[in-house]
């Protein structure tokens, strides 16, 4: 049966690839977007996840169109990379407010219907950087690492209601976020990846789609790397 799915940050990159994959599998998919153009062929809802009222309104619109959200994928995120000594407090808190607290807002709102249904799938999109760290990304790495503790706490809190929480940690993926890098920077980073290449958004989407599937019903609190082996040992 088709399910009601909401993907935050689903207008590009991994979020959009995930929305397309779930839609192709037969689900009714809504995506939120903020600054990028809304994607065609999906229910696109403008939403800034740093605003609780906008998150609530986005869920209401998705629910009216597709029914109560049964699968939530949290992919909305920003970067404000800077070395610690140059990083402003606003650079730090803005990234946490979007990447971590924005996820909290979406999960809290989704949990209402999932608790009533005694069923749900939640997948949080973290990053390989969360587990191994990266210079100049203390804010981003901290926000993404926190998602692991958040997901595992939720897995324990809501597991008895058949709601699963899992995390994927993509490595260097061919999305808009890395297109600002120079060829030299990109080559250096690819050189540290055992598989020797960038990941495709569709590869992370496939992992998310599995964790959101009925077949993954006995998997919760897991962290699944999709990073070409870059994070081994972390």
TrEMBL record:
GO MF annotation terms: 3-oxoacyl-[acyl-carrier-protein] reductase (NADPH) activity
UniProt xrefs under Pfam families: adh_short_C2
Keyword Oxidoreductase: yes
EC category: oxidoreductase
Alphabetic keyword roster: Oxidoreductase
UniProt domain Ketoreductase: residue ranges: 3-171
The EC number(s) this enzyme carries: 1.1.1.100
Keyword Oxidoreductase: yes
Family: Belongs to the short-chain dehydrogenases/reductases (SDR) family.
NCBIfam families: PRK12826.1-2
This protein's name: 3-oxoacyl-ACP reductase FabG
Originating species: Streptomyces atriruber
Name of the coding gene: fabG
């Amino acid at each position: 049966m088709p399910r009601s799915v909401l993907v935050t940050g689903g207008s590009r990159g991994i979020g959009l690839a995930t929305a397309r994959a779930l839609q192709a599998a037969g689900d009714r998919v809504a995506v939120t977007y903020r600054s990028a153009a809304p994607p065609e062929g999906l229910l696109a809802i403008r939403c800034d996840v740093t605003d609780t009222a906008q998150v609530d309104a986005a869920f209401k619109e998705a629910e009216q169109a597709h029914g109560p959200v049964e699968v939530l994928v949290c992919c909305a995120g920003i970067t404000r990379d800077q070395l610690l000594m140059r990083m402003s407090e606003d650079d730090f808190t803005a990234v946490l407010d979007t990447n971590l607290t924005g996820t909290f807002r979406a999960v809290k709102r989704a949990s209402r219907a999932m608790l009533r249904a005694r069923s749900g799938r939640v997948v949080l999109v973290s990053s390989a950087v969360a587990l191994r760290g990266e210079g100049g990304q203390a804010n981003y790495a901290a926000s993404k690492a926190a998602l692991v503790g958040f997901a595992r706490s939720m897995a324990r809190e809501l597991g008895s209601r058949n709601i699963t929480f899992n995390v994927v940690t993509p490595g260097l993926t061919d999305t808009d976020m890395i297109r600002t890098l120079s060829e030299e920077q990109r080559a250096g980073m690819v050189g540290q990846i055992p598989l020797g290449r960038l990941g495709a958004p569709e590869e992370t989407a496939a992992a998310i789609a599995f964790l959101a599937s009925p077949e993954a019903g006995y998997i919760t609190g897991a962290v699944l790397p999709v990073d070409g082996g870059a994070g081994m040992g972390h």
